């Protein structure tokens, strides 16, 4: 079976800056893949390319066996790409349930069905008790959760999680990890960008390390963390030699 | 939860029906023509502001150029009537249709602009429209069009003796604009619009085509405002560019919604009910002094309300409710 998501030789340049150079990755159905790398490695750019915020300068992106390189973000969502944002982008003047209904409307045109779907998603993500609260009144961890809920309501095949576990307390992060597992168990493939290694590594099936816009290493989390190239990218030469 | 939601929707509908019924009875008690005139204008501006609110309140695309659509409604109706003998009822719909098409045509380039740039574009376009009509000989140029009035007629929608038919039409228009908003509020479009207003990028990631959503809002909004313009033209029985397309109309559509609560169902009605009588009364009681005292009073009140209640007057009504929810 073909991979659910594939990027083929993707480049992204912003003026003189090369954010992604020749990135080819693939994500198989049912996997949880972690996309990691130091700051400025090009993770967010790659995410935006996959989500369709902007087209790549060069290369192509394939989703579910089709070339989606030039499709806008809304169209990709309709095809089954759901995403969250690193800097949360809740609909602040709307209630939690209304936020999620916006996502549910992608697959449910009748309002009553969209609402029912949204309630299901809130149950699933543990936000049901906060349904009628304004999004602006949520605490940060709940806002992260709302991002996930909203994306799940679009019934994605692939869920892109952009640092949903960053900046949370250890307890909150563990709840987040449990949620990501639950999402995968529901049959949704997950590609996640994450900073916090000790949380993300036990969670993912496979890790892809980006550095300076290129794929540095790819493999099982346990192997990736021991790879000298990865240690060097994160900590500098001296530590790599020591290892 | 769902029960609360549908209960609130039903309650809104019932309140609206009761208010409309009470308003319909008002002429039984109000015989003074001057006061009746104020009532007609209040209802008309409530309807206009409600329509403006669809694009600018719900969808967040602040327009200060809606006078253009108002004027297009007025001119289409009267040009069709005076030049081709088309009855105002049809002219009204034609005006609405033309305004909607123009709104989308203008939206095509301008919806790429954001924030203040969009607002500036709407002002400029409405100003251009005004200048075009001032110089368009066939449409009467700056002289305008006088509508030939030959006695009371529902067919031609003109009445000389009584203001009551106008009152009931304005009430109907107000009800329609309110009902359309009520209906759209719990529709796919309503949700898309609010999402677009709050965060276009997130909306796009959830499958909302932002551009199309704005176009839809612009079309509905312009259509309803043009119907209002057609009504106003019939009401005055005379139009010229300044009196149906002047900048003050753009302001008088925006202010009630802003005052009452922008992007809310009841804001425009509430705002118009306070603002329009206030405008008329300050003008007639202290406007005669010739020193613009009425405008000073009027402006001061608006500033005070904006400072004290930035969310608009409806926030007073819903304050207790939100507090309970956030706890």
Provide the β-strand percentage band of chain B: under 5%
- CA-based gyration radius of chain B: 20 Å
Helix proportion of chain B: over 70%
What would the principal axes of the Cα set say about the shape of chain A? Answer: globular
Global geometry of chain B: globular
Largest interface: A-B, 37 and 28 residues
Segments of chain A where pLDDT lies below 50 for 5+ residues?
Answer: none
End-to-end Cα distance of chain A: 38 Å
User: What string, H for helix and E for strand, traces the elements of chain B in order?
Assistant: HHHHHEHHHHEHHHHH
What is the element string of chain A, with H for helices and E for strands?
EEEHEEHEHHHEHEHEEHHH
Distance between the termini of chain B: 16 Å
- In the CATH hierarchy, the third-tier topology of chain A is known as Rossmann fold
Query: What's the assembly state of these chains?
Result: heterodimer
The overall pLDDT of chain B, averaged over residues, is: 89
Number of domains of chain A: 1
Broad CATH class of chain A: Alpha Beta
| CATH hierarchy class name of chain B | Mainly Alpha
Identify the CATH homologous superfamily of chain A: P-loop containing nucleotide triphosphate hydrolases
Summarize the main sheet of chain A.
6 strands, mixed
Beta-strand segment tally of chain B: 2
GO molecular function (chain A): ATP binding; ATP hydrolysis activity; L-isoleucine transmembrane transporter activity; L-phenylalanine transmembrane transporter activity; L-valine transmembrane transporter activity
Keywords (chain A): ATP-binding, Nucleotide-binding, Transport
Protein name (chain A): ABC transporter
Domain ABC transporter (chain A): 5-237
